[in-house]
Amino acid sequence: MTAFDKRLHPFREDLAAEYLRGKIEADRFTPGKRRQICSGHVPLRRLPDPTAPLDTELLFGETVQLYDERDGWSWVQSEVDGYVGYAESRMIAETLSIPTHSVIVPATYLYPEPDLKIAPIDWLPMTAIVNVCESTGKHCKLTSGGWIFSTHLAPINTPAPDHCDVARMFLYSPYLWGGKTTAGIDCSGLLQVSLARCCKKISRDSDMQQGAGWPVEYDGDNRVLQRGDLVFWRGHAGIWIDPQSFIHASATDMLVTIEQLDDVAARIEAASGDPILCVRRV
Q: For a pLDDT cut of 90, what percent of the chain falls above it?
C-alpha cells in the first residue's frame, strides 16, 4: 500500500481514520469527532506521555478531529494544518463555538473579570481564535468565559500586512522544538505563525513548507531575494527581510534572532555540510 506520513495521517496498528480505509491496514476505523481546544496553547506530543517529544502546539479555539481517548489523553488531528498527535483531554472541549476574532499581539491574558488587577486564568498566543459575545469598550467577553483586552483582538481573517514585521514581534523569544508561541518557538513554527497572522496558510514542519508559494532561482546571489522570502536548509528555515536582516528561530543561540543570511549559511554548512536547499516566495 501507499506510504503515508504519520505526522499528517491518523493511523496506528489498532486504529485509523475512516478516510484511510482501503489505503492502509488497521484493526478498525473511526470517523472521528470534532472538538475544540479550550486552553491557551496545548502541547501535541508524539506519544500519550507528558515526557514524550513535543511535535507542535494546538492553539486556543482551533478545532481537531478526535479519534481516540483513554487515560486522560486524546489522539487528534488538527484541522488547521493536519498534524496528528496526542493532547491532554482536559484541554479539549466538546462544545464548539464559531470564532469571531483572533489574537493579533504576541500574547494576551484572559481574565475572569474585566479588571487588570486580578489574577488571569490563562494566556492566549498570537493567532488563537475566540468567540466574542460582549464588549465593554476596553475588554471583550468570550462565550467560553473570561475577558481579553479588546485592542489585542481583531475580527477573524483580518490580515497583518507583512509577515516580516510579524516575525520581528517574536524577536528574542526562546527556542523550543515544536513551539508556536512567544514562550517558545522553533524555526518552522515562526514561519507558520507569522504567515498565519497574515492569513496565509503554510504547513507545520520545514520539509513540508518547502512546497509553499513558488520557487525563487537562487544560486547564492542575495540580490535575487525579496523581503519575505522563505529560505530553507535540511531541517531549518528562516525569513529574509533585507540585506542585513535574516530572522530565524536559532537552535544555536536558542532564541529568535536576526543575523545576516551569509553568516547563517556559512555556519550551517560548516557544522553539517548542508547548503541552502531552496528559496520560496509567498
A: 98
